[in-house]
Design a protein that fits this description.
Elements: H1 3-6, H2 9-27, H3 35-53, H4 60-77, H5 84-101, H6 108-131, H7 133-143, H8 146-157, H9 168-188, H10 193-212, H11 216-234, H12 240-263, H13 265-275, H14 284-294, H15 307-311, H16 319-352, H17 357-367
């Protein structure tokens, strides 16, 4: 029997779900992806997969999802914003995807390889943007949706590089994820020295790409996640030698990045944004103060789902403050409990199963 005939119908549905999910995650700002249609198809495929399996295992993380979803639903009832329902539907679809992919029929290696390819595509776009901006502009004009292309042009006018995207935050995020994947490979896969050197190079490329994108927050989050992950991994007597090697590599990274910052136009601009800006938050502190001032009378239950986006088009630029403003202290407690539980759960899995690749990469993403 050939390999194609061995694929079950359920697995075929999961592969189709994965295809649409990756399209939505990586290419939602292009002309070719209609987000609503993709999300509807995703939801239908996930429901089909759940129905085929008949039995649904609601894990503890899934129960956390349900609690967050319930808070959002209650928030919709107290909100007069038109897109509150859309936010709730997106969370519901995310929950359905979570359940559908929990059956574990897809090869983890296949998923990671696809993420590596797509993240590398965004990294390459950032570097190419610095080398040949005219070429990238021509490509983006052809592939990006009109709103995304307008944002791309605005960011380019500030010398913020986006690569093959309308948003530098997207490119920086995928570059950081690429670094995280190869960081776990570097320390936990038994490979030849040459291959490990390649991994070090890819990690550096990913971090430098976040600098090129001029996303300070992503860079700081990525660096912090790497440091904490190394401390959790090696800060004990059994791993003392590996921990020293990790510190040495970290020092090499810092020297390499400092050299890039000092000798490259993107790096110099990145440093200036830290040192010469009158407002290091780029206006975010004013948003935070406004949200806190507006929430004085609704701090228990919040103002309803989507209220922060109604006040500021791009939201609060801080997920914790946004949850607090929309859902109050009760919603913030639910969200924080879910987040902290998942982080602790992942760290425990990691300490007990450091040889499992998915756990290592889950740890980086959780910390990030």
């Amino acid at each position: 029997m050939d390999s194609v005939s061995k694929i079950t119908f359920s697995k075929l549905i999961q592969y189709c779900s994965l295809f649409f999910l990756l399209c939505y995650i990586f290419f939602w700002d292009t002309k070719f992806i209609q987000s609503r249609i993709v999300l509807i198809v995703l939801l239908a495929l996930c429901i089909m997969n759940i129905v085929l399996h008949k039995k649904i295992f609601i894990s503890t993380p899934a129960k956390g999802w349900l609690a967050v979803l319930l808070c959002t639903l209650l928030g919709v009832a107290g909100s007069g914003e038109s897109y509150a329902t859309r936010i709730c539907l997106q969370l519901f679809i995310c929950f359905a995807i979570f359940l559908a992919f929990s059956f574990g029929e897809l090869s983890y290696k296949t998923i990671v390889r696809l993420f590596i390819i797509l993240c590398s595509f965004y990294c390459a776009g950032l570097f190419l943007h610095t080398i040949n901006p005219h070429f990238v502009d021509t490509i983006n004009e052809s592939i990006l949706a009109s709103a995304a292309y307008s944002t791309y042009q605005e960011l380019s006018s500030y010398s913020y590089y986006t690569g093959f995207s309308g948003f530098n935050c997207m490119s920086a995020l995928f570059a950081a994820l690429l670094s995280g994947i190869y960081l776990s490979k570097l320390f936990f896969e038994k490979k030849l020295l040459l291959k490990k050197c390649v991994y070090v190079g890819i990690i550096l490329i990913g971090i430098i790409a976040t600098i090129i994108a001029q996303k300070r927050g992503v860079f700081i989050a990525c660096a912090t996640a790497i440091i904490i992950m190394l401390l959790i991994t090696f800060a004990n007597k059994k791993n003392a030698k590996k921990f020293l090697v990790a510190i040495l590599l970290l020092a090499i990274f810092m020297v390499s990045i400092y050299y890039f910052l000092q000798t490259n136009a993107s790096g110099e601009q990145f440093l200036r944004r830290f040192m010469e800006s009158d407002d290091i938050s780029s206006g975010r502190f004013d948003i935070y103060l406004s949200l806190l001032s507006e929430s004085k009378n609704t701090f228990v239950f919040g103002k309803g789902t989507g209220a922060s986006q109604a006040l500021f088009n791009m939201g609060a630029h801080n997920i914790y403050l946004q949850v607090y403003f929309d859902h109050g202290m009760i919603g913030l407690f639910v969200y924080l409990f879910w987040f902290v539980f998942n982080l602790i759960y992942t760290v425990k899995l990691f300490k007990n199963n450091t040889n499992i690749a998915i756990v290592r990469q889950m740890l980086f993403i959780s910390l990030y």
